[in-house]
Specification:
The complex is a heterodimer.
Chain A: H1 3-20, H2 22-46, H3 49-56, H4 62-93, H5 96-100, H6 106-112, H7 115-137, H8 139-173, H9 180-192, H10 203-211, H11 213-226, H12 232-267
Helix pairs in contact in A: 1-2, 2-4, 2-7, 4-7, 4-8, 4-9, 4-11, 7-8, 8-11, 8-12, 9-11, 11-12
Chain B: E1 6-22, E2 28-44, E3 48-52, H1 59-66, E4 74-79, E5 82-83, H2 88-94, E6 95-98, H3 111-121, H4 126-139, H5 157-168, E7 175-179, H6 187-202, E8 207-212, H7 215-221, E9 224-229, E10 232-238, H8 239-244, E11 250-257, H9 264-275, E12 279-283, E13 288-294, H10 299-312, E14 316-322, H11 327-335
Parallel strand pairs in B: 3-8, 3-9, 6-7, 7-8
Antiparallel strand pairs in B: 1-2, 1-4, 4-5, 9-10, 11-13, 11-14, 12-13
Helix pairs in contact in B: 3-4, 9-10
Classes of the chains: A mainly alpha, B alpha/beta.
C-alpha cells in the first residue's frame, strides 16, 4: 500500500470540491486579497505607512510585509483546519470510520493526505500575490522574495503538520464535537506575530510564541519582506529551528495520535 | 463445519461503555452500561448471517468490534482467522463495512467521485480503480438510476444505501459487515438491496453479516440467525431451526382498536394474567396487534379468555388469526418478554 494513492486521493478530492463548488473556488481565490485589504485598511486607520516603518525600525514596505504575514497566516489556518479540523468534518459527515478503515495509521492518513492540498493552496496564494510583489519590488528582488516566501511555506509546513496533528489527536479522543479550532486559530496567529511582530509582544507572550512553529514560519516569510537580499545564515538558522521543531512536534503528535486513536477505539467514539 | 470454513468468529466478547447522566448544569453522574456480556458465534464462509435484536441489544457494538473500530474489554474476534485487535491492518483488507446507509460520504462529491476517493484511500489506482468503480456503479444499479454524476447531497436514501454497499465492495473483500443496511428504505429499495446481498453471498461467495431488527428481513435473506438481546446471544440457528424451537406454541394474533386512555403495559399484564401465556402488543398503522403464544392444546380456551379480557377492557376487536410460528415468536419465547419489529 503506497503513499502515492493516499496523496492522490487527497489531491483528486480537492480538485473535485473546487470543480463542484464554484463558490468555494471564488472564495478561495478572493480570500487572500480580502484578508490583506482588511489588515492594511485597519492599519491605515491607526497610522500612516511612515509611522509603521518607524515602529518596525526598518525601511520596509508595509504592503509586502503584510503580504508575507497574510500568506503564512492564511496557510497556517488552512493547515490547522485541514489536518486537525478534518477529524471534525469527517465525524460530522459520518465518514470518519471509513477513513480509519484505510490500511494506514490514521495520523499518517490525516497528515499525508493534506500535503497536496497545502501545496495547491500555497502555490495559488503566492501566484496571486506575485504580480503585486513584483510591482512593488521590481522583477529581480520580487522574484527573490517570492522564492524565500515559498521556501518558508514549504519548510514551515513540516512542523505545522505535527502541531496540527497534536490537536487532531485531541479532537479524535473527545466525544464532544468541540470546535476548539475556532478559538485556537486566532490565538495561535496572535502569538505567532502574524499581525504584530512577535518581538514586540510582552515577555510572557514571547515565551509562548517561541513554542509555536508558525512564529518561525512567519519570521522566515518576513525575511523576504524586510531584507532586500535575504541573509543566508539567518535563513539557515530559521530553517534549522523549523526542522528541529518538525522532528519534535511530529514525534509527539505521532505518539499522541496513537494514544488518542486507542482511547477513541476503547470508548467507541469512532462514528 | 471445519475451522477452515469459518469466516467470522467471536469468542466471549465483553464490552462496557461509560456514560454520563447530567443531573444539573455542572453535575453529572457516571454510569457503566454493559453492551456485550460474552458474545460468541461463528459465521461460515459464503452465508448471509443475521444478527437480530432490538435497539440497544449490542448489534452495532459487535459489528464495530468486528470492523476494528472498537476495542472489546475482553474476549476475541477473528475475521478469516485474523485477530481483529492484533492484526487489525490485515483484517481491514478482508472486510467491507457499512455502518450507516444514510451518511458517510462527501456531500459535494458525486457518487463516482466518492467511490474513486475511497478506492484510492484503500489503495486502488489507475485503470483498475476506474474499471472497479464503473463495475460497481452498474452492479448496484446506480448507473440505471442516473445517480453516477449526481452530487451525493441530491441522492435519495435508496441511492445512498446502494452507494454505501458499493463502497464495501471496492476492494472486493471476502467478508461484508453491514449494520442495518435497509434501515429507512422504502419497500422496493429494501427488497432490491436484500436480493443483492443474497446474490453476493450465494453467487459471489461473499460472507455477509448483517444486523437488523426486522424479523421479516432476517427470515427471508439469512441462512442463519443469531438472536441477541441485552448483550447476550440467546440462540444461533437457521431460521427453520429457530422456528422449530417454538413448535410447542401456536401464535395467536388479535388486531384491536384500544380505547384512547388504554395503557399498553397495563393491557399486556392483564392478558398475561388471564391467559397465562407470553403476550406482546405491537402498535400498527391502524390499531394494535396483540400476539399471544398459546400451547397447541388450549388455543380455543386462550382465545376466549383473551377476547373476554379485551371486551372487559373496552377494546374493539377487529380480527383474530391463528398463525404459523415466525422469528418474532421465537424472540418472544426466548426472552419471555418483548418482541420487536
Amino acid at each position: 500500500m503506497s503513499f502515492k494513492t493516499l496523496v492522490k486521493a487527497s489531491f483528486v478530492q480537492t480538485i473535485y470540491f473546487l470543480k463542484n463548488v464554484k463558490a468555494m473556488l471564488i472564495t478561495f481565490l478572493l480570500w487572500p486579497y480580502l484578508m490583506l485589504g482588511l489588515i492594511l485598511g485597519a492599519g491605515l486607520m491607526f497610522g500612516s505607512t511612515a509611522s509603521f516603518r518607524q515602529n518596525i525600525g526598518l525601511n520596509v514596505d508595509p504592503i509586502v510585509f503584510f503580504i508575507a504575514s497574510t500568506v503564512v497566516a492564511l496557510i497556517s489556518i488552512s493547515l490547522m483546519w485541514g489536518v486537525a479540523g478534518s477529524v471534525l468534518e469527517l465525524r460530522w459527515i459520518g465518514a470518519l470510520p471509513y477513513v480509519m478503515l484505510a490500511p494506514h495509521r490514521f495520523s499518517i492518513t490525516l497528515v499525508v493526505s493534506y500535503i497536496p492540498n497545502y501545496l495547491l493552496i500555497a502555490s495559488l496564494q503566492i501566484l496571486e500575490f506575485a504580480p503585486l510583489i513584483i510591482l512593488i519590488e521590481g522583477l529581480e528582488i520580487g522574484l527573490l522574495k517570492i522564492a524565500v516566501l515559498f521556501l518558508a511555506l514549504i519548510v514551515g509546513m513540516l512542523p505545522l503538520m505535527g502541531f496540527a496533528a497534536l490537536f487532531a489527536s485531541l479532537l479524535i479522543s473527545i466525544k464532544e464535537e468541540s470546535n476548539i479550532l475556532a478559538w485556537l486559530n486566532p490565538i495561535i496567529l496572535l502569538f505567532s506575530g502574524a499581525f504584530y511582530p512577535a518581538y514586540l509582544l510582552p515577555r510572557w507572550a514571547q515565551f509562548i510564541s517561541w513554542l509555536l512553529p508558525s512564529t518561525y514560519t512567519i519570521e522566515l516569510a518576513r525575511l523576504s519582506a524586510l531584507i532586500g537580499a535575504p541573509n543566508l545564515s539567518t535563513i539557515t538558522f530559521m530553517i534549522g529551528i523549523l526542522l528541529g521543531m518538525t522532528v519534535a512536534y511530529n514525534s509527539i503528535a505521532s505518539a499522541l495520535m496513537g494514544a488518542g486513536e486507542r482511547k477513541a477505539l476503547r470508548e467507541g467514539i469512532i462514528e | 463445519m471445519s475451522n477452515r470454513n469459518i469466516a467470522i468468529e467471536t469468542v466471549s466478547l465483553v464490552k462496557t461503555y461509560t456514560a454520563y447522566d447530567r443531573i444539573g448544569f455542572f453535575k453529572r453522574v457516571k454510569k457503566r452500561v454493559k453492551a456485550l456480556r460474552g458474545v460468541s458465534f461463528k459465521v461460515y464462509k459464503g452465508e448471509v448471517f443475521g444478527l437480530l435484536g432490538p435497539n440497544g441489544a449490542g448489534k452495532t457494538t459487535t459489528v464495530k468490534i468486528l470492523s476494528t473500530l472498537l476495542l472489546p474489554d475482553s474476549g476475541d474476534a477473528y475475521i478469516l482467522g485474523h485477530h481483529v485487535i492484533h492484526e487489525a491492518t490485515k483484517v481491514r483488507k478482508l472486510i467491507g463495512v457499512s455502518l450507516s446507509v444514510e451518511r458517510g460520504f462527501f456531500w459535494k462529491l458525486t457518487g463516482r467521485e466518492n467511490l474513486k476517493y475511497f478506492g484510492m484511500l484503500y489503495g486502488l489506482d489507475g485503470p483498475e480503480l476506474d474499471q472497479r468503480v464503473d463495475e460497481l456503479l452498474v452492479m448496484l444499479g446506480l448507473e440505471e438510476l442516473g445517480a453516477v454524476n449526481k452530487l451525493y447531497e441530491e441522492y435519495s436514501l435508496g441511492m445512498k444505501a446502494r452507494l454505501s454497499i458499493a463502497r464495501t465492495l471496492l476492494t472486493d473483500p471476502p467478508v461484508l459487515i453491514l449494520d442495518e443496511p435497509t434501515l429507512g428504505l422504502d419497500p422496493p429499495s429494501a427488497r432490491c438491496l436484500r436480493e443483492m446481498l443474497v446474490q453476493l453471498a450465494h453467487k459471489k461467495s461473499k460472507t455477509v453479516l448483517i444486523t437488523t431488527h426486522n424479523m421479516f428481513e432476517a427470515e427471508i435473506i439469512c441462512d442463519r440467525v443469531a438472536i441477541i438481546d441485552k448483550g447476550q446471544i440467546l440462540a444461533v440457528d437457521t431460521v427453520d431451526g429457530l422456528k422449530r424451537r417454538v413448535a410447542d406454541v401456536v401464535p395467536l394474533e388479535i388486531t384491536v382498536y384500544l380505547p384512547a386512555q388504554a395503557s399498553i403495559e397495563h393491557l399486556t399484564e392483564i392478558l398475561k394474567r388471564d391467559t397465562s401465556c407470553p403476550v406482546k402488543i405491537f402498535p400498527e398503522e391502524k390499531g394494535h396487534r396483540i400476539k399471544i403464544l398459546s400451547p397447541p392444546d388450549t388455543v380455543d380456551e386462550t382465545t376466549s379468555r383473551a377476547l373476554k379480557s379485551l371486551y372487559d377492557q373496552k377494546c374493539n376487536v377487529r380480527k383474530v388469526e391463528v398463525k404459523q410460528p415466525s422469528l418474532e415468536d421465537v424472540f418472544i419465547k426466548l426472552t419471555g418478554k418483548t418482541g420487536f419489529r
